[in-house]
Amino acid sequence: MAIARHRAGRERRPTLEQVAERAGVGRGTVSRVINGSPRVSDRTRVAVEAAIADLGYVPHRAARALAGNRADAVALVVPEPETRLFAEPYFASIIRGVSTELAEADIQLLLTLSSTATERERFAQYAAGNRVDGVLLVSVHGEDPLPELLAENGIPAVMNGRRSADESFPHVDGDNVGGARAAVRHLLERGAAAVATITGSRDMYAAQCRLDGYYAELAASGVDEDEGLVAHGDFSEEGGYRAMYELLGRRPGLDAVFCASDLTAAGARRALREAGRSVPGDVALVGFDDSAIARHMDPPLTSVRQPTEEMGRAMTRALLAEIAGEPAAAPGLILPTELVRRASS
């Protein structure tokens, strides 16, 4: 009998959802008010605080999770090996944006690596067990089935990037085509006669978009395509190193290279130095991401800046809105990029 009374009392505890309904706002908005986020209007804050007072709501993490059937946790899934996660500054910047946004909502971040089909299936089963409220996906490759596995289980999820031009899964991406075009335009305006490119992983849409941007700017400038000036990399430093040697073997007279990432440009810079080519005297070099690598290279690297940390924050806001049941404005958000000029070009 005592147990029954205890359960009944626990069930009568007001939930975050009831506060949201009383205030006429979403669950995510209530969470932001509770955690003192500045991204709430004064009028909304007053309404939420009044609802909390009326209902006697106590914002305790364990009570919230039990009453609202929530885990108060979001998983960030990176389908890459551990070596790449820690080698590429891109991931650190995304994680920083995600963790900052989740901290404001008082939600735990779980970081998961899933580089094999078995690991993806295992994670999908884990998430389906109500252990997380939603999933953020970073660096998704073209044939990755995880987004569909999550959708089939009704798990809210948002991707960083897209798998194709027709992507309908919720996503936040950068303007890869526009950024690549700006990089190539800069090299051509500088007077380069033979602009080469080192791509990213061919099964990733971001890499294809940057290659499309390269071709588009050549065409717009009246420059004929030369497949001998295109080498395929994988966004890594070693990939850039190998591809640069490949390009020098095919087109020794090249005088500029657009790389699909800063890490790729670092590998290309090493190969150029070994081959006795100066940067930018013999070969101008441009990267993509504008990471810390770009600023600390010798010479400092011209790079396409994409707002990586803001991308992490934006995809997190989109996920929290989805978890709260708020309608999505659009399936995807594309953030602008800009070229940052430095001594390498």
TrEMBL record:
One of the record's GO molecular function terms: DNA-binding transcription factor activity
Sequence intervals crossing the membrane: none
PROSITE patterns: HTH_LACI_2
Domain HTH lacI-type: 14-68
Pfam family, one: Peripla_BP_3
Gene3D superfamilies in the cross-refs: 3.40.50.2300, lambda repressor-like DNA-binding domains
Keywords: DNA-binding, Transcription, Transcription regulation
CDD domains the UniProt entry points to: HTH_LacI, PBP1_LacI_sugar_binding-like
Domain of life, source organism: Bacteria
Protein name per its UniProtKB record: LacI family transcriptional regulator
Native organism: Streptomyces lonarensis
